[in-house]
Design goal:
Layout: E1 16-19, E2 22-27, E3 32-35, H1 38-52, E4 61-69, E5 72-81, E6 87-93, H2 102-115, E7 119-123, E8 128-134, E9 137-140
Parallel strand pairs: 6-7
Antiparallel strand pairs: 1-2, 2-3, 4-5, 5-6, 7-8, 8-9
Length: 176
Amino acid sequence: MLRPPKLNFPPVKLRARRQGAQTEVWDEWRGCYLVLTPEEWVRRHLLVFLVERCGACAKRIVQEYPVRLNGQPQRADVVVVDAAGQPLLLAECKAPDVKLDGRTLAQAVRYNSVLGARYILLTNGLNHYCYACRDGQCLPLGAFPDLSDSSDDASCGAPEVPAAGAKPEEPGHSAL
């Protein structure tokens, strides 16, 4: 990725390096460098935003969260868990040039049918859509959710390595 696109998130400082022809970015949560793809650029910004603006506890953010659908292993991009370890927010990240549509939401809803998170967030870095999920329904929110109940103790500081490894076309979906 030669020049990362400007996103609809506050700027973040990332530690990056060149490795041959690729740019890699440091992942504080997993403690390693990752290839900086357009989707990874969005994910890095989202993670910082969740902690700094939404109040999520950095230690309770899990990337590549395992989800088993119909016996097949899948992975949700980002899951924030509450103090009891239960999924609070499920986020799906796409590259900035990928349109967020009904298929994106359907993917997240499928994952959430297993996880049962209170919120679903879809982002391509330019557009963000948040939904509150209750009783099998996901209703659009007009703002990012407050995740401060995931950081209700003093141990929520710098991230540690966690244990686990365009607008929608449907009416009624509002962008943030």
